[in-house]
Write a structure and sequence with these properties.
heterodimer, A: 208 residues, mainly alpha, two-stranded antiparallel sheet, two-stranded antiparallel ribbon, 6 helices, 4 strands, elongated, B: 499 residues, globular, disordered N terminus, disordered C terminus
């Protein structure tokens, strides 16, 4: 192994082989994947709304991926479906509209691929983001209080204000104040509710 | 005969040459070697000093994210956006991977290149500029992650205004590497040099592809995930691993004063690593929404890793045979051999984790986090500590001021990292069993894992203490603290000038 050109040819060929195999060929295979027209004419998956796309950026910025995955494995590859995280495994087509794909590698918290199908109440999500322990006792999720404003109640209470129950001792709101979500909190919740992957059938992935 | 021996056992060439030559020429050789070392002083020290800074910063971030996992709301600046778990955790990874490990690795690679090419540093300004760009990129990137510009792609979190700095830096080092090899003394290209050249050549290609396809011109859908893990795994396998192995291949024979056991095993080990490691990435996506053929290819390639890993382990172990007593006295050897053993351990564990039935179980758990620390810490980081204990005295022309501090550094980091590994492995395995049983509620799993996470913080604290000791030693070296010594600092009472 004393000849430089041979050595470099070897470096090039071994790496180029893997580059072609795991990057270029999959790119050719998947880049044209489009939505599927179901029997009733709906195009699946549903394209996300603008506000949900903005929320996806917040999801990324706050690093939700480090504790939550967004992928449902087939029934013979784990308990994902048995836990109710989806009615089928997720497939490549589910992700074609995602600007950044948040598959995740860790489940410190539950999978969120179809959290919007499991929990579609904005009220619940806001309370949960503001005080996870209140909605989910024992949770170790960080509180995202900085996505909310604590403001003095004006002539009328804000229609957006989040109503915590009087019994929720974990949340201390001063008398005469209310908790209001910022635009970013609303975007994030819109995104979470839009997550309905693995809840509709596709030809390559019928519901199990 | 001697000539043939040198051909087959490249690492012995230097010492064998010294043995047969006249004393004057031995002294001249030693002077030339000192001049080569001196020519690397500034660039290597810039890389090393910044690496030590990032090590301390990165372990602080790690400690903070670990504490946040069992104390999410009380204290610890819970309401401060910049320090929320989801930002501190990637700041930790990027600071220790790109700030510490890569920077220390590049510094070591520069020094090794000069030594192995047998030539003084060509264009020392190039690696120096590369070092400045690299650190600017890391600082900008970590600021971006904490400030809310993270790309949220694991191992590629740095925002688009930071990552080009890293690419430029690396490309400069690649160009410089080619200049160096063209200026080398005629003769053998050593095993360590293959690994370093390969790493210098592969990484810009790897990093460029991943940045373009994920961050600059995002590919559609899960192609991103495939490229993400092709990158993530290759950054470990085709950058950190080659530099770590180059270090082991150089220092083990160098310190014990005998050649690498088998040249042929080194050849097999290198090319099988190049061929199989590059196909490993998709085992991070088993069961995920990428084509099954890709997952299968990666599972097969992962199992084939038995060849390079087995061959390298046999080669290093047989080289060391009969010399294990030197671990008692040589600080460098102790760290390097610990790293080499952990390389074998983490690689074998990685193969197991790629086997689908086992992957189904431990995927998405702390078990994987334990594996990651075994690889990047117990293997790579310890290897770098070993290299730095050998190289820094030759750069600053001063000996380490305290054997006791080196010893404390070793035991705190060695025991701390193994404790972290064991805690995460046991906790992660129990978490895996529970996650796979859909009758166990999710919150019960959170509660069950919690004590392990607390224990992990304790292990992290030990490692952090070790880093503070190492950082102190490093500053003492720069300031030439203490008395001038006649020989190198050894652990225990051994007298051996070869250390």
């Amino acid at each position: 192994m004393n000849r430089l050109p041979t050595l470099f040819a070897g470096f090039f060929l071994t790496f180029a082989f893997a580059w072609l195999g795991l990057v270029i060929i999959p790119y050719i295979q998947l880049e044209k994947l489009g939505p599927h027209e179901s029997d009733d004419g709906t195009m699946l998956p549903l394209p996300p709304s603008g506000i949900a796309q903005q929320g996806a950026a917040i999801y990324g910025r706050e690093g939700c991926i480090y504790c939550h995955s967004q992928q449902v494995r087939p029934a013979n590859r784990g308990s994902d479906i048995a836990r109710g995280w989806g009615t089928r495994a997720t497939v490549a087509r589910d992700y074609i509209y995602d600007r950044t794909v948040y598959l995740g590698t860790m489940r410190t918290g539950p999978d969120l691929a179809n959290i919007g199908a499991r929990q579609d109440s904005p009220e619940w999500h806001h309370k949960h983001l503001y005080s996870p322990e209140t909605m989910s006792p024992g949770s170790i999720m960080p509180a995202y209080t900085y996505l909310y404003r604590v403001q003095k109640i004006g002539r009328f209470p804000s229609p957006d204000a989040i109503e915590f129950y009087k019994t929720d001792t974990k949340v201390a709101i001063p008398e005469g104040y209310e908790i209001v979500p910022t635009e970013e909190a609303k975007q994030l919740v819109a995104y979470l509710i839009s997550l309905k992957k693995a809840s509709y059938p596709l030809p390559e992935a019928p519901s199990e | 005969m001697n000539f043939l021996r040198n051909m087959l056992h490249p690492a012995s060439a230097e010492s064998a040459g010294t043995a047969v030559s006249m004393p004057e020429s031995a002294a001249a050789q030693r002077r030339e070697r000192a001049a080569i070392d001196a020519s690397t002083r500034i660039p290597v020290l810039v890389f090393y000093a910044s690496a030590v800074f990032w090590l301390l910063f990165g372990s602080l971030m790690g400690l903070l994210s670990s504490l946040k996992m069992h104390h999410p709301t009380t204290g610890l600046l819970a309401d401060f956006a910049m320090l929320t778990f989801g930002r501190v955790r990637p700041a930790h990874l990027n600071a220790v991977a790109y700030g510490w490990a890569a920077t220390a690795g590049l510094g070591t690679a520069i020094w090794l290149m000069a030594r192995l090419c047998g030539t003084r540093l060509v264009n020392p300004i190039l690696p120096l500029i590369a070092g400045v760009f690299w650190n600017a990129g890391v600082a900008l990137g970590i600021y971006g992650v904490l400030a809310g510009d993270s790309r949220s792609v694991e191992w590629l979190e740095f925002p688009n205004y930071a990552s080009p700095c890293l690419f430029i830096s690396y490309a400069l080092l690649g160009i410089w590497g080619v200049m160096m090899i063209l200026q080398r003394k005629p003769g053998h290209i050593y095993v360590s040099q293959w690994y370093i050249f390969a790493a210098l050549f592969w990484f810009p290609w790897l990093y460029g592809t991943a940045q373009i396809m994920i961050n600059f011109v995002p590919a559609q859908g899960t192609i991103q995930a495939a490229v993400n893990w092709w990158y993530g795994h290759n950054a470990l396998g085709l950058f950190f691993t080659p530099i770590g192995l180059a270090t082991a291949y150089y220092f083990i024979p160098k310190i014990i004063g005998r050649p690498v056991h088998s040249y042929y095993l080194s050849v097999i080990g290198f090319w099988s690593l190049a061929f199989f490691y590059s196909w490993n990435g998709m085992h991070h996506l088993i069961g995920g929404p990428v084509p099954l053929w890709m997952q299968t290819a990666s599972v097969v390639a992962s199992c084939m890793m038995l060849i390079p890993v087995g061959v390298t382990a046999i080669n290093h172990h047989t080289t060391m045979r009969g010399h294990f007593h030197l671990l008692k006295s040589s600080p460098s050897l102790r760290f390097v051999v610990f790293g080499a053993i952990m390389y074998t351990a983490t690689s074998l564990q990685g193969i197991l984790e790629a086997v689908p039935w086992f992957n189904k179980l431990v995927h998405f758990t702390h078990y994987t986090v334990g594996h990651a620390h075994l690889g990047l810490y117990s293997f790579f980081t310890m290897m770098m500590f070993g290299a730095m204990y050998y190289i820094i005295p030759r750069l600053v022309e001063w000996e380490w001021p305290s054997a006791r501090m080196i010893s404390a550094h070793f035991w705190l980091t060695a025991v701390g990292s193994l404790l972290m590994f064991l805690t995460l492995t046991v906790g992660g395995f129990l978490q895996a069993l529970a996650l796979n049983d859909d009758k166990v509620t999710f919150m019960a799993i959170v509660d069950m894992v919690n004590p392990f996470l607390q224990f992990r913080s304790l292990a992290g604290l030990m490692m952090f203490a070790g880093h503070i000791i190492f950082g102190t030693l490093f500053v003492m070296m720069l300031l030439k603290f203490g008395e001038k010594q006649s020989g190198p600092t050894t652990l225990g009472n051994h007298e051996d000038s070869s250390l």
